[in-house]
Amino acid sequence: xxxxxxxxxxxxxxxxxKKYNVSKTTYTWRTIDGEAVVIHFAVTVTDSSTxxxxxxxxxxxxxxxxKTEC
Amino acid sequence: MLTPTIFLLDMDSYFASxxxxxxxxxxxxPVAVCGAPAQNDGTWKRTIIVTASYEARKYGxxxxxxxxxxKKLCPHxxxxxxxxxxxxxxxxxxxxxLTDYTDQVEVYSIDECFMxxxxxxxxxxxxxxxxxxxxxxxxxxxxxITCSIGIGSxxxxxxxxxxxxxxxGLYELNDRDIPQLFDVLPLSKLQGVGIGRQLEKKLNSLxxxxxxxxxxxxxxxxxxxxxxxxxxxxxxxxxRGDTVVRKYNTQTNIxxxxxxxxxxxxTCDLNIVNSYLLxxxxxxxxxxxxxxxxxxxxxxxxxxxxxxxxxxxxxxxxYINTGHExxxxxxxxxxxxxxxxxxxxxxGLSISSLVKNNQTFLLEDINKTQRLVSAIxxxxxxxxxxxxxxxxxxxxEKFGKQENRCGLIGKHIFDSRRGK
Lengths: 70, 420
Description:
The structure holds 2 protein chains of 2 kinds. Chain A is 0% helix and 71% strand. In chain A, the strands form 2 sheets. In chain A, strands 3-4-5-6-7 form a 5-stranded antiparallel sheet, with no helix packed on it. In chain A, strands 1-2 form a two-stranded antiparallel sheet. Chain A has strands spanning 2-4, 7-9, 12-15, 18-33, 36-45, 51-57, 63-69. Chain A has no helices and 7 strands. Chain A has one domain (2-69). Chain A is mainly β. By secondary structure, chain B is an alpha+beta fold. In chain B, 40% of the residues lie in helices and 20% in strands. Chain B has 16 helices and 13 strands. In chain B, α12 crosses α13 (323-334). Chain A binds chain B through residues 26-27, 29-37, 40, 42, 44, 49, 51, 69, and chain B through 18, 21-25, 85-86, 89-90, 143-144, 380-385, 387, 417, 420.
């Protein structure tokens, strides 16, 4: 991920030992899980029409791949 | 005195627009957001359309259409299970944009806000219209979605103006234009302004077909047929309405706290129904305590598989705020339905007659209970809802919790999100 002002942006992620470069973050939203704020990113990757949802827990600093949509 | 300048900002096909922005491949395509995900067999049996995109509306799909019917109307419809967290967060973000223009921003629903810009619009380049254009542009740039803004001198005319040119509309309805407009405006155009379909039919049966006719009707005739609503109807027909817009940080006036759940499948199993009732009790008790309230009247509603239902209230005689107490009261109502003759589809529970928690308890056991629930709240607030819960709730969770159902979202949800 990279910092963009006060925001963070995912740049790439690994799935099944393959690296996916994020081409665009189409949408961002936040959810609350107890005390933790979780930021969700809907992203597209290079050379694919699949949409991925990544999340970042600001308390635990854990990234997760939440779902994929073809 | 300055004539008030009221905005009504209405998001266009809100949930569907958000989903089209999340997934640009859906732009320009018929999209419908429904209440629950597809079942394991890939069908969407127990849910309805919550919002349809404008492309889907062309096929006759609207809010409330059952999914199977929507699929018949438009076989290539893109169905998406709603994600209310996404819509709430976007809504809060939009509300924050609006507070850059005035602190008088009243959240009317998840996709509608009133603004009073009487004092601030005159300071803005381009006045009220320029301000509205800028708001629309900022929302489009940040979220990729459009809204319509109506400008009027009160809430009725602002809401009416917002409906005129949708989607992506902006219309200022001046008071001087109202007589000419209302002369020919059918009552159907006042839907969403306070006149629903049923009311329209009743008014039509009295020979009232246009807004002007409504405004000209003797108030005593309207109150005779519609009670206190008659006074409001007369004002709507004259283009008059409330001008008070609450400040953004004003807490919603809470009169009751409730929750309902459609079960993943209909059931006659009492253990499962009871488990859901306990789950609902714990949920509303936690919310009650969060707001600092105690309640006295518990209402239970059960809908059966054939869509008939039963609802009743029980006055506890004292004030309660724990899931255990609410569940106990709900049981007193529920036993009247036993033995169950039909399978249960939905269970709803609410508590009303609320008072603020400013009592000091003298009895040791009450103090113990309050200390216990306070400790549970502390853990659940830190680690997430239902981290600690009664074991019996596990039965409902196993049957299927359907936490992510997306339907009507109460305004109370924004109270806890404003500061975050």
